[in-house]
Amino acid sequence: MIKKSFKEDIVKEKIGLAGCGNMGLPMLYSMLSKNIDAQGYDIDSRKSLSGLGEKFIDSKKKFLDDRQIIISVVRDAADTLELCQGRNGLFEQKSNKILIISSTLSPRFLMDLKSKAPKNITIIDAPMSGATMAAEQSRLTFMVGCEKKLFEYTKPLLAVMGSQINHVGQYGSGMMVKVLNNFIAAASVVSVRHVINQAEKFNLDIETIFKTIDTSSGQTWFGTNREKIDWFKEPYNDNNTIGILKKDVEAYVDAFENVSELDNFVTGELSSSIIKAINNMPLTR
Predict the structure, then answer these.
(1) b/e per residue, 201-230, with b = 16+ CB within 10 A?
(2) Under a CB-based contact definition with an 8 Å cutoff, are residues 197 and 191 in contact?
(3) Which long-range contacts (CB under 8 A, 24 or more apart) does 78-83 make?
(4) Measured between alpha carbons, how far is residue 148 from residues 128, 145, 166, 210 in Å?
(5) Contacts from 188-197 at CB under 8 Å and sequence distance 24+?
(6) Which tens digits make up the pLDDT trace of 176-199?
(7) pLDDT at 33 over 80
(8) Do the Cβ atoms of 11 and 38 come closer than 8 Å?
(9) Which pLDDT tens digit goes with each residue over 35-59?
(10) Residue 192, pLDDT score
């Protein structure tokens, strides 16, 4: 339900984006390019954000006090808890706010977060897909979980940053679809990088291989966009995109591979193998 304190047109509200990293920063720029009253906040007040001037607020309290709609693109559950329940957090606010969670988190964590939110805070899960290049071009895909009327209200704002805005069901369902999507993505990343590693052992030309694969049944988003993905050759590191991919697989495991919910199709071996492969992922030449 949309509270009466919000303006009829969401893009006329004061928008705040928390998490000005590789995804969040271009999302903020997309809103600013449309003359939306948007400001950014990040737990790390990096020098690279100083160019935003008054469009970046380094105080969480001032940021939350002034913004009515908060889009969260922070890294993980710990940063989400800091934003919401930490000192001067969102859950201490007394006025009505809408929190749009676009980070990839465990659906279980998401449900627990909502149960702790005060009644004046409306939470929507709207994780996005498309990587940095899609964020920079304002063509992200959003997977939104909330009631239909709330979706219709927030859709015009998400459409500023994305080209595909999909309502997939009630709260929590957006994140479930996202972690399923990222499980497929992680499997394809591991597969593509494994193929490259094997090809290099036999001195095969990588570009020749992928020109063939791109028009064959082995075609993948990751392989086809190898020249556009800035993290395509990265090794595993806790703080880079490959590290985030591991976190996403762990969110999938938390949501769908509880011991009591295992089935006979995949009983955890596949996700364990993917996580192991990500941990061991080397730098590609």
Answers:
(1) eeeeeeeebbeebeeeeeebebbeebeebe
(2) no
(3) 79/19, 79/43, 79/103, 80/105, 80/109, 80/113, 81/113, 82/43, 83/18, 83/43
(4) 18, 9, 11, 42
(5) 188/220, 188/221, 188/222, 188/223, 189/222, 189/242, 189/245, 189/278, 190/274, 190/277, 190/278, 190/281, 191/220, 192/220, 192/222, 192/223, 192/226, 193/277, 193/281, 193/284, 194/277, 196/284, 197/282, 197/284
(6) 999 999 999 999 999 999 999 999
(7) yes
(8) no
(9) 999 999 998 766 567 678 889 998 9
(10) 96
Extract the tokens encoding 34. 């449309």
C-beta pairs of 38-46 under 8 Å, 24+ apart in sequence? 39/14, 39/15, 39/63, 39/66, 39/67, 40/16, 41/16, 41/17, 42/18, 43/19, 43/74, 43/79, 43/82, 43/83
Does the pLDDT of residue 202 top 80, yes or no? yes
| φ, ψ (nearest 5 deg) of residue 87 | -60, 130
Domains present along the chain, CATH in parentheses:
10-171 (3.40.50.720), 176-279 (1.10.1040.10)
Q: Tell me which residue has tokens 């002034």.
A: 66
Tokens of 13: 């509200």
Tell me the two tokens of residue 214. Answer: 């791109």
Q: Which two tokens stand for residue 107?
A: 């659906």
